[in-house]
Amino acid sequence: MSINVKSKFGLPSVSYKNLFFVSLMCMLLFVSLFSCALVVVGAEASVKTEADLLAAIDNAPSGVSVAIVLGADIVLTNSLSIPVNKNITLVSDDDNVFKLVGTVAAQSTIAVKSGGILVLDGVIVTHASGVSGSGVNVASGGALILLSGEIFNNTDTEGGGVVNFGNFTMSGGKISNGTNVMGGVVNNGTFTMSGGEVFNNTIVAGVDGGGVLNCGNFSLSGGEIYGNTLCGVYNSGNFTMSGGKILKNTGNGVVINHDGTFILSGGEISNNKADFGGGVYISSSHGTGNFTMSGGMIFNNTAIEFGGGVYNEGSIFELSGGVIANNTANAGGGLYTMGNFTMSGGEFSNNTATSGGGVYNFMGNFSLTKGELFNNTATNGGGMYTYGGNFTMHGGKISNNTALGSGGGIGVPGFSGLQYVYIFDNVVFSNNRASASYNRSSTHDELYNSRISNRVTWTSPFTQGYNNYDISYISGEQNNGGSGGPTKDPGPDGSNTPGTSPPPSNPGSNPVDDPRADLLRIVIVLALVVGLVAAVLIFYLPKRATKPKEEDLSNFSVV
Question: pLDDT by residue for the chain (559 residues), tens digit each?
Fold first, then answer.
């Protein structure tokens, strides 16, 4: 006999036997959905030959992430293609790191087509000895994600490790040992680097590039770019740096050319060495470069000639924060500028040069409203040296600088050089030192009164500015640090066509979405719904069926 419960409202009866089967079906449905989700999200294939690898890519479902595990080194007879709507992750097995080896000259080892996504996680992408070609070429609309592994020993006239026209994201891994190329990474799309290393890539003289040649949008927040020749980053696009390191490159740390922009808010540029602009070189030979620095550090860089930390050839440099320190050059230890330089914060400290320990201003315009030049050293112009260009100081501080000759704070070439120095109210000079001092001559009074405010704090014990501690000229000197500045473009010549490529019209577009995330969200929601229904059927309805209210017993019948 079975008990059927019938409501007076005519609702369907609930049978214990039916209830059991319904609950069982719900649980089986839940397990099936969850198992399918695991299979789809974590689909995987293991390969050891080129044929198996091509078949695994061909059989991968469109729009679904598929991991392909390399069980051996694979020599490719053609460029490996990641086609449209394929989302492929290449990994090595647990015990080894295997190689994909390109063997066809002038072809990339891997080509990511438009709409394709490739994730590299623990494999090596290279070329056979003596065979040219880039490591990975990413088409516009394609995406490359480098998590670990290495792209190395690739050589090509268009770029060594990665040539990117789409989206390239690097959070780990290495790109190294590209030779006679434009860059370890040549970016014409969007390149985001938060980790990993780009190192030991080499180009020949007269070619743009080094570690990274950026003609698109490049964002650096972590990782290191080091040991490259001729520079760490050659930028003719949009380059933002909020972290990471650019260091120990044989050549400039960063070159800005072809109307490129560089925004530095964090990280460090250090221990680079070049003829001009050891840390940063802002060129004006092919357009007006723009460098904005609000944070980070430029330190321990060396220029054989001008601008140990920064060389501004005739473009725009705006400093509002950060540190430029411990750099060395013949002229302009921290900065050599022939363009427009505005300083509203930050510091130049512990820089060294023959002239202009902190800053050498040659025929440019230097405006100081906030920030400090301190502890810099030079033969003449410890804090700064200005020749033929205007220096205006509305605020900030010049302190603790040393000139072995004259001009502990500011040095100028001859009496006529004083006419380019303007000092306004509430400016502070302190503890600057030079070899000798003197009070100004009465013949300087007219110039002094038209250029120097009477509300300025001077280095003790002086109460006025024209002396050999704070502002001074060298009798008979015309220009210390190079008459007329450099007579030729001292940096890369920028004659190669990749440097002229315009940045994308929509910077930062084409984000890479992982389809696994959406699928997993759907599965989780379905699992929750099924679990809730099962819980109601198992725990709630049986109790209501077996424990009716006493006042409603009259509405039930026993069959």
Answer: 443 434 433 444 445 455 445 454 545 444 444 444 433 444 678 999 999 999 999 999 999 999 999 999 999 999 999 999 999 999 998 889 999 999 999 999 999 999 999 999 999 999 999 899 999 999 999 999 999 999 999 887 777 899 999 999 999 999 998 877 788 999 999 999 999 999 999 887 667 788 999 999 999 999 999 999 989 999 999 999 999 999 999 999 999 998 999 999 999 999 999 999 999 999 988 778 999 999 999 999 999 999 999 999 999 999 999 999 999 999 999 999 999 999 999 999 999 999 999 999 999 999 999 999 999 999 999 999 999 999 999 999 999 999 999 999 999 998 889 999 999 998 999 999 998 788 888 888 999 999 999 999 999 999 999 988 999 986 543 333 333 333 333 332 333 222 223 333 333 333 334 444 444 455 455 555 555 555 555 554 455 444 444 444 344 343 3
Q: Which residues contact 157 (CB under 8 A, 6 or more apart)?
A: 132, 180, 181, 182
pTM to 2 decimal places: 0.80
Distance set, CA 233 to CA 151, 167, 260, 499 (Å): 18, 18, 12, 12
Where are any strands of DSSP class E within 15-142? 43-47, 65-70, 74-76, 80-82, 87-92, 99-102, 110-112, 117-127, 136-138
Q: What is the CA radius of gyration of the chain?
A: 34
Q: Identify each DSSP E strand in 143-287 by its residue range.
A: 143-152, 162-164, 167-170, 174-176, 183-187, 190-193, 197-199, 210-214, 217-220, 224-226, 231-235, 238-241, 245-247, 252-256, 261-264, 268-270, 273-276, 280-282
Phi-psi region of 426 (alpha: psi -120 to 50; beta: other; left: phi over 0): left
**Total residues belonging to the chain:** 559
Residue closest to 148 by CA, chosen among 91, 226, 230, 102: 91
Helix (H) or strand (E) holding 515: helix 515-535
